[in-house]
Amino acid sequence: MIYPAELQCAFPVFEGLLPEPHNSSVLELLYTLCHWHGFAKLRMHTDETLRVMDDLTRSVGNVVCVFQAKTCKAFATKELRREAQSCQCREILSRSSTAPGRAPSKSVVVAQ
User: Fold this and answer.
1) Domain range for residue 15?
2) H/E element holding 95?
């Protein structure tokens, strides 16, 4: 779970990390998520805060789409081996727990 203080502290860490226009894209994504998160944490909403929350939710979707379409495609990345193994374990557990007549297994060993 990401907390507002962590999002706010992330700004100086990410600022200038990537070349433009990707730097602005990352900062806009962080700002929009922080803004949305602030409204999402409200315990009571008015009609106005619900309207703003709807607008912010659309903004989050738009900013994420732009980030994925432009910034993500600009950088060649690959999954770490341990991430791939974790994903493989989750898939195996998911399949074994949904198989009819089978109880989910307690542990999965992945060959390295």
Assistant:
1) 4-74
2) helix 81-98
